[in-house]
Amino acid sequence: xxxxxxxxxxxxxxxxxxxxxxxxxxxxxxxxxxxxxxxxxxxxxxxxxxxxxxxxxxxxxxxxxxxxxx
Length: 70
Description:
Elements: H1 9-31, H2 34-62
Helix pairs in contact: 1-2
């Protein structure tokens, strides 16, 4: 039985970017509809802000990095 490795943060970020940014932009652009483009871009901006805020909060929870003594 082979073990499945957990995707890296960057792999997960790539998947999120594809689903949340690239796909909606492609769909809105393909339709050549300004209103659809505006709705898609507003949703994309909101999703990016939420992702950045989530990352910031995770960093705050983790606390400051400790310096290694040499």
